[in-house]
Amino acid sequence: xxxxxxxxxxxxxxxxxxxxxxxxxxxxxxxxxxxxxxxxxxxxxxxxxxxxxxxxxxxxxxxxxxxxxxxxxxxxxxxxxxxxxxxxxxxxxxxxxxxxxxxxxxxxxxxxxxxxxxxxxxxxxxxxxxxxxxxxxxxxxxxxxxxxxxxxxxxxxxxxxxxxxxxxxxxxxxxxxxxxxxxxxxxxxxxxxxxxxxxxxxxxxxxxxxxxxxxxxxxxxxxxxxxxxxxxxxxxxxxxxxxxxxxxxxxxxxxxxxxxxxxxxxxxxxxxxxxxxxxxxxxxxxxxxxxxxxxxxxxxxxxxxxxxxxxxxxxxxxxxxxxxxxxxxxxxxxxxxxxxxxxxxxxxxxxxxxxxxxxxxxxxxxxxxxxxxxxxxxxxxxxxxxxxxxxxxxxxxxxxxxxxxxxxxxxxxxxxxxxxxxxxxxxxxxxxxxxxxxxxxxxxxxxxxxxxxxxxxxxxxxxxxxxxxxxxxx
Length: 474
What we know:
By secondary structure, the chain is α/β, with parallel strands linked by helices. Helix content is about 25%, strand content about 30%. It has eleven helices and 28 strands. The chain has helices at about 10-20, 45-50, 65-70, 130-135, 150-160, 185-195, 235-240, 340-355, 425-435, 440-450, 455-470, and strands at about 1-5, 25-30, 70-75, 80, 85-90, 95, 100-105, 105-110, 120-125, 145, 165-170, 200, 205-210, 215-220, 255-260, 265-270, 275-280, 280-285, 290, 305, 320, 325-330, 335, 370-375, 375-385, 390-400, 405-410, 415-420. It has a five-stranded parallel β-sheet. A five-stranded parallel β-sheet has the order 9-18-10-11-12, covered by helices on one side. The radius of gyration is 26 Å and the shape is globular. The chain starts with a strand and ends with a helix.
């Protein structure tokens, strides 16, 4: 049996290991489009703050892991899939045949249509190569502008702040993390970031990024000399490039603007609010989307992601999907959901791999969970945090203490919630939402006092579990 896995992230690696465990003699090939060993993107912020080296981001520490498992890893990119012919075309022109295929190509950054995005000082924060460029420019004191304050943006923001940069964040939405938090919660996170020294613009767009003009010296004995090379980030960068030194100072030069500055020099970022922000580095964190464009005309059905049933199989028998690119069927809500978090990728990879081996596994849930640490402020989002039509909500806010609880109800079930600062409730909230626990009289008690979540879970959640166990023995 020939198994081909497109994608070398967590889903692809877990699927390959699961296949090998249960099918020791099958052919397994992973296709990944980056030169490094398979790694976790979620570890990149830890790389940027120096907690790990590049090898600390690798999904498997043993460099011979895949050779020992007899798994072939190709560093290529899939450009087309022909579902009818059971082939994958790679960017080097080679063609792979398969019996079973797993599409685990993850997400890719959204590139906003802004003039100046091609400047060398503009980077996404998505790959190890991006991280190297960011680490080079995001030195202490550097002026950094980050576009986007969503979930990924806030993770990157924390790493940048810990590097000691002068940080400005620009978010188009009316609040921070607008796809995870309601207005009160998102604005509370903004206030926290500003308290920590980060400048934040919400409801604001970047309209253009322009290269600053370089400065060159012309002979003159009267013009002022440049600032000391010890004074700032740009000067330090110049010193690293060999443009400074300890030799005697030349006659004072005249300085004037000429051509665009070389890589690493300052940029001017024009905002929709009329302001202009100077930056040594611009990071684009404006969101991601499933990496599925190469599946056009493949015969595999896609919505936002690759459409799949509860066994992670697509509309084509023998072709499966998992991870951030999968629009998987959630048995609990009877809807297809993209939930781009690593635990989901791991669960889906296992289910998909077992079904590639015809073992009959089923994905029971597609949890919608986000837990975020923003400069020390812990926030969480579960389920339908924005509420449902006809539902009720309860909200408790302590602005001075940076604490918030927002609960969303559908009939007598808790279907979603936002939390800031109340970390002791995170596990209970997840249990109530994912367990679809009927609250009965506890719904009104929670509306009156949202902090009684643990009591509600003990009273109703455990009782529901006992009823379910009793029913199983009838």
